[in-house]
Amino acid sequence: MVxxxxxxxxxxxxxxxYRVNGLPLAVFICHxxxxxxxxxxxxxxSMITQRKDFEQIxxxxxxxxxxxxxxxxxxxxxxxxxxxxxxxxxxxxxDIVNVRPGTLDRPDAVVPIAQAWTSAAHAWAIAPDIKRxxxxxxxxQGLFKEWRAIHR
Length: 152
Ligand SMILES: [Zn+2]
Ligand SMILES: [Zn+2]
Hints:
glutathione-dependent formaldehyde- activating enzyme (gfa); binds zinc ion; 34% strand
């Protein structure tokens, strides 16, 4: 799967636009309760991106700090007009930005490498062919390597 870099994306109303200039590290599904509540859906998607590769190119965000499912503080960034959440800063990992891949212009360009917290998943929402972890994934560096071998 060859990724056409930069990846671009933005919010529903179009005021907030961003670009990802380098190959991300991986895409994950998370089935935890926190992700379900925040998205109002069955799971969340995370595209782990190096901060140096992430660029906001139009518009600003409003943000709030709130603990994620791990208990670590997360800074959720939303468009101030339409309130789409485009990305999350994980404050414990300052070199990383978690871009929400549903906001990419081409969300089908990236495929998740693993799904976390299947112990909290709806049975019907578990993706059949994607690695499962009952809680947080182990060997995250190994998963980064696998994802980057698939998306070049
Ligand atoms: Zn917007
Ligand atoms: Zn989660």
